[in-house]
């Protein structure tokens, strides 16, 4: 039975209140999602009001709670807020217990604006990840972004085996189609792991192509609040459970964080 890693992105970005209005106990959501079947948590540094910040106090409190209750893999974001500098977007890299960090491979149109990731910025993030021995989670939104992987590898900023997030359906960006996923998969370097990420996902049914083709998946309120039934999930854990049920139907075995580390080429968790 082919193994499946479920990633979790628990908190939507600013100006995405339609996904999850109000405050969230991030640590509790991550812990409940781990028990439901999630092995990776994609986290932003946020303040007590849920806004992205460079102040690590609340982030560290959440991490302490998460680590005390679960061995889940922590992958942090370099998204940040528009006013943050490159160094500020990497502030989470300095916190103990981080194992992965997002590395966006290029710019895209997004929500009526542009999510800018010029090559100079990408090099900076890759360098910060590299010097801290954090594995990059390579977020790819467009076919052209794959050329960035070759470029960074030649510059010794990244090295295989790679983990990709293939991202679709962000407003104003590339919408999902089976043929687009097929083209993306043709570009993956050998032995790469890949996750299908779909913004405004309509439940586990939107991830069947990944489940059937050996990919992994990421769910959570950052990506979409709905279950396969069409109902709004009451928690991130329900979104994870929805994928677990779908995985059973297609013969995929959901694995825990320790096995996920082996699959992704991460070091064994130190006790």
What are the main properties of this structure?
alpha/beta; 12 strands; 271 residues; eight-stranded parallel beta barrel; 32% helix
Characterization of this structure:
- Helix content is 32%, strand content 18%.
- The protein has 271 residues and is α/β, with parallel strands linked by helices.
- The strands form three sheets. Strands 2-3-4-5-8-9-10-11 form an eight-stranded parallel barrel, surrounded by four helices. It has a two-stranded parallel sheet with strand order 1-12. The chain has a two-stranded antiparallel ribbon with strand order 6-7.
- Strand 2, helix 1 (26-36) and strand 3 form a beta-alpha-beta unit.
- The mean pLDDT is 94.
Distance between the termini: 29 Å
Structural class: alpha/beta
Sketch the topology as an H/E string, one letter per element: EEHEHEHEEEHEHEHEHEHEH
**What's the alpha carbon Rg, rounded to whole Å?**
17 Å
Strand adjacency order, main sheet: 2-3-4-5-8-9-10-11
The chain-level mean pLDDT equals: 94
Approximately what portion of the residues adopt beta-strand conformation? 15-25%
Give a short account of the largest sheet.
8 strands, parallel, barrel
Number of helices: 9
- Overall 3D shape: globular
Uncertain stretches of 5 or more adjacent residues: none
- Helix content range of the residues, please? 25-40%
| Overall strand count | 12
Would you kindly provide a brief summary of this structure?
This protein is α/β, with parallel strands linked by helices and 271 residues long. It contains nine helices and twelve strands. The protein has helices spanning 26-36, 57-69, 86-89, 119-131, 146-154, 178-187, 208-212, 236-250, 257-264, and strands at residues 2-4, 6-8, 40-43, 73-76, 100-104, 108-110, 113-115, 135-140, 163-168, 193-198, 216-219, 252-254.
């Amino acid at each position: 039975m082919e193994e499946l890693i479920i990633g979790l992105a628990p908190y939507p970005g600013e100006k995405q209140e339609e996904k999850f209005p109000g405050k969230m106990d991030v640590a509790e959501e991550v812990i409940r999602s781990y028990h439901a079947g999630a092995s990776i948590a994609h986290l932003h540094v946020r303040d007590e009001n849920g806004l992205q910040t460079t102040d690590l106090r609340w982030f560290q409190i959440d991490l302490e709670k998460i680590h005390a209750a679960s061995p889940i893999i922590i992958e942090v974001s370099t998204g940040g807020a528009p006013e943050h500098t490159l160094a500020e977007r990497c502030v989470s890299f300095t916190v103990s217990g981080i194992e992965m960090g997002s590395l966006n491979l290029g710019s895209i149109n997004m929500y009526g604006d542009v999510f800018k990731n010029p090559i100079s910025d990408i090099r900076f993030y890759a360098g910060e990840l590299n010097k801290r021995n954090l594995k990059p989670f390579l977020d790819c939104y467009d076919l052209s972004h794959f050329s960035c992987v070759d470029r960074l590898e030649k510059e010794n900023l990244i090295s295989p085996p790679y983990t990709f997030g293939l991202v679709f359906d962000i407003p104003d960006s590339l919408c999902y189609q089976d043929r687009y996923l097929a083209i993306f998969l043709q570009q993956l370097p050998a032995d790469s792991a890949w996750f299908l990420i779909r913004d405004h996902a309509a439940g586990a049914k939107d991830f069947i192509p990944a489940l059937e083709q050996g990919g992994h998946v990421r769910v959570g309120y950052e990506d979409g609040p709905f279950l396969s039934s069409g109902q709004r999930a009451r928690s991130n854990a329900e979104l994870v459970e929805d994928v677990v049920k779908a995985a059973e139907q297609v013969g995929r075995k959901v694995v825990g964080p320790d096995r996920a580390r082996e699959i992704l080429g991460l070091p064994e968790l130190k006790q």
